[in-house]
Amino acid sequence: MTSSLRLRAGLVSIALLAAFLGIWHLATRSAGTTTTMSPEYAKLMGLTATQGKSAMPGPLDVGAKLWEHLRRPFYDNGPNDKGLGIQLAYSIARVGTGYLLAVLVAIPLGFLIGMSPLLSKALDPFIQVLKPISPLAWMPLALYTIKDSSVSAIFVIFICSIWPMLLNTVFGVASVRKEWINVARTLEVGTVRRAFTVILPAAAPTILTGMRISIGIAWLVIVAAEMLVGGTGIGYFVWNEWNNLSITNVIIAILLIGVVGMLLDQILARFTRMVTFPE
Amino acid sequence: MSTFDNPFDPDRNLRAGCACGQHRSAAEHEQAALALRCQPAESEEKRYEGVVASAVMRAMFPQDMARRAFLKSVGASTALAALSQCFPLKTATEVFAQAGAPEKKDLKVGFIPITCATPIIMAAPMGFYSKHGLNVEVVKTAGWAVIRDKTINKEYDAAHMLAPMPIAISLGLGANAIPFAVPAIENINGQGIVLATKHKDKRDPKDWKGLKFAIPFDYSMHNYLLRYYLAEHGLDPDTDVQLRSVPPPEMVANLRADNIDGFLAPDNICQRAIYDGVGFMHLLSKEIWDGHPCCSFAASREFITTAPNSFAALTRAIVDATAYASKAENRKQIAEAIAPANYINAPVTVLEQVLTGTYADGLGGVKTDAKRVDFDPFPWQSFAVWMLTQMKRWGQIKGDVDYKAVAEQVYLATDTKKLMTEMGLSPPATAYKSFAVMGKNFDPAKPEDYLASFKIKKGA
To answer: What is the pTM of this model?
Structure first.
């Protein structure tokens, strides 16, 4: 029964994709020559103007261009023109660094706050104010004070991925069942040992959920951050192609951003499953 | 006597009214030199060779008459050959071209991907930087504010900026006041007003009330020229139309989406809108003010004082590239060099139309204007004075301005003149010239009178 459900779901997915591509293809077909123009003039004009080609590329254009990119993902033509593989690697490296820093800060801090009602109350107003700030709002400030654009991008990733992790850690730690802590206490387990053997395993699923939310946000933000600072990365690639009004390349970038985001999310989802326990 | 007239010419007039002998009076000579401005020699190497050979020739024969006798008897080419026998002309030329060794060889220069940056960009693939002993990485940058911040941060040693930007930064408008300087103007002309195709019957600006226009940046010639043009036609740019700051690629997209009615933007964006069939060229900015500056090459004072030789070498490279770009026959080659994704990232046809000046106007016609965009590096201080009058006119500067002091602090005409002279070019004698914008004369000596003469302005 489950295998037949999976099969049917797969078929529906494929049918939806085919329908989508078909409609896309039909909607972006060129409408033939629009107006008569002198050949000399037509030579100076783009296909949109001469052949009534839609400004939106069709799926075939995108497919051809995608194939071109995938065939040589790691070429390097100087500082402003690198292969998609290199651009993605830059973005992932930035996200990884910023995210790791956030993990290093958020989880111990979250633990501390979760275990101490005093700290929790004292820090709460700051967290509440800082949490809703759009990560990109930090960008000009970071550029201005850090004075280094790639460090600024990493800082923005750090600042935006820290809050969900922190709050989830606090929540996870604070809501560990009282009985378990009491049992540990009656067995005279020390604070440090209690934190590692009782609280951490109990809070792990919540903490990982926070980490999973964070990586999603980090990946959302890096594209926008790189569009702003330029230089390298997939966000810069989108900006550069937008500058060239190359919608084909923008679509390809969107597709790849989606795929990488999904992979990052899946990795953390797997970790979450590993630490989940039945109650 | 000028250093750059040919001492190997035995028929040169030695006694006429002016220094070079080609004019009747010294005043006329000055006039002609002004008109010549910076006409480059046919090849850069030849130019340096000429400068060095001239100096040696003059040193060997300090007396004009003796030199003439010698040249008459052996001929110029023999004289040159004889000269190179006893003096290593080639080595001397190389040494001369390099001048002081740069303190810092690896430099980063930021640019915005538009045709205004042509000299900055082409100097990399075409080897103008390396010729002057520099290893320059030209870095594409995401916007004017970012270029400003990255130059202030010292991520870039120098950068492509809009001509009014270094003035604005030095005055602390829209940023902390940091002294910046302009050794060279990137390009002159090279912008245009594009309107959406649906406005093709609305060619009279008087009918433009209520339209929405886009400009790339507040402190830009785009802003000042569009405002000037509108105001000359009786429209108050602050109340009668809407002006929005929009990044150039979004201008084309917004025009297609019917979100704006037109824009004043760099030429390649204008041409791109035409190429994509969404707009037409209403007029070139050249028709508002022929020879107006557009973008500049700028560096912070700090960089100039800490690495003066690097800065001089950079300026030389830019002046060299600008001289090369100013020639019509090189433009096609340049278009190909700067079109790839690494640089401007635009279709070659579009760049070619901009640089060669033979372009589709968007209304079915092909127009030709070889000076649509042009390159002339001399940083006229009167340009800076004009920009200051407009900053004041539109309320960007409040209170009194010492026009001359600011212009001279930011636009390094004296240094550039010296450098150009060393390179064998003939820079103009003064740093101020008057010019006409839409038929109205601007006298750089009387900026306040000029400012007072406008009917439409923001009350300051």
So the answer is: 0.80
